[in-house]
Amino acid sequence: MLRRFLGLMALLASLCTGSGLRAELVSPQSLTEDGTTFQRIGTKTFRWMSILKVYDASLHLGAGESPERVFADIPMRLHLVYHRGFTAAEIVKGGDTLLARNVDAATLTSLRDRLERLNATYRDVKPGDSYTLTYVPGAGTTLRLNGSALITVPGHDFAAAYFRIWLGDKPINDSLRDALLGR
User: Three-class SS of residue 125?
Assistant: First the structure.
């Protein structure tokens, strides 16, 4: 009985700490990526059920841009550092579900081909890995895994829709959205 209890406690401890590994949010005040200078707007650790750390997130916008203009055609960068492992299929399923909550059916239909190309590039992540989405006007949205570019998806319409997963009216988490937008 005691052995079973201690095993359960060890399992819970590993779940709460991301299997003992600690992902550090690297979020400088300003940075340059894809030839664009970005300034940090906000950061926050996203927790599932307010308990389990999922990832650290930071949002950067083009230098001098205001969070009120987040869906305008401006440079933006979202950086996620994972505390937990996820399969690519889990990431895609969650993203698709949240995107459908934040855009209308016609918009979703118009994005389908580009969304499928993006989804096909996602890879499994483990604690400490990071995904970055960087939108630069005229160039598109680049998805990076641990700093390596995987794909660039064209169109401001794509970026404005996809970033709504974290920043829209029905995001993955309201307090995460508000912290990222500096509210």
Answer: strand
